[in-house]
Amino acid sequence: xxxAELHHLDRQVVGWLDESRKRIRAAMAAPVCxxxxxxxxxxxxxxxxxxxxFLVSRITAAYPTARIEGEEGSAAKVSTLAGRVxxxxxxxxxxxxxxxxxxxxxxxxxxxxxxxxxxxxxxxxRDEVITGGPQLPLTQNGVPLPLVPDRALADGLLGVNAPMxxxxxxxLGQVALASAGPRMTGSAGMEFLAIAQGQQxxxxxxxxxxxxxxxxxxxxxxxxxxxxxxxSPVDLLTPxxxxxxxxxxxxxxxxxxxxxxxxxx
Length: 265
Ligand code: IPD
Ligand code: CA
Ligand code: CA
Hints:
CATH superfamily of the largest domain: Fructose-1,6-Bisphosphatase, subunit A, domain 1
CATH topology of the largest domain: Fructose-1,6-Bisphosphatase, Chain A, domain 1
Bound molecules: D-MYO-inositol-1-phosphate, calcium ion
Distance between the termini: 40 Å
Strand content: 25-35%
Number of domains: 2
Strand order of the largest sheet: 3-4-5-6-7-8-9
Order of helices and strands: HEEHEEHEEEEEEHHEHEHEEH
């Protein structure tokens, strides 16, 4: 994309996220219909589904040839990363949405031939949207964010996935103890926002492509390292364990992680 096309994409996505925020806030005034998916901790609501439909309609109208991988999608899954792909998580942190009415996000990541182009994450209740990419600066509500500090693991808070840390998968319990302190927000989007805002040094979790796409793309604006535990690149066709951290902490985390097989619980 040219710089002008990127700027246009940014304006469009920020507008769609603002509409999403208003729709979600309005929907919260009525009782929410909650269903389980793979298990009792895996929820979807009528609001997730409606926001996915809304975002897909906007993306399709603006970029008819792009493909869309959305969490609550009914369309066929994306099976290659060729061309332009939008990754959409209409509500990230649905458990928080249902139980806390806070700490949930909407995420859109845009990739071309598997390469990150653009990421946007909205904290719905705080009305904060962070955007950026390899060719776009990191901004919050349109204002450039300060440089994200490259702290040592011991000096930064580390976002962690609850089952992984409780079960010490990949030695993550010990890694968390080596940080300034572990944090578990229950929303990948909120974790990426915290890193971009300099509040956390990293995040380790088992993630689906739509959980990581936006953060990995805007992370390119500030040197965020996003890999698998063995240091290999994250491919957006498969779920898996993701280590997202600033460079110093990322190297320390990888050195402390052991090989393991993650079993989702
Ligand atoms: C979940 C959240 C959570 C992460 C899970 C995700 P969802 O997304 O990001 O933090 O640990 O793996 O599935 O289902 O609420 O969109
Ligand atoms: Ca979701
Ligand atoms: Ca999610």
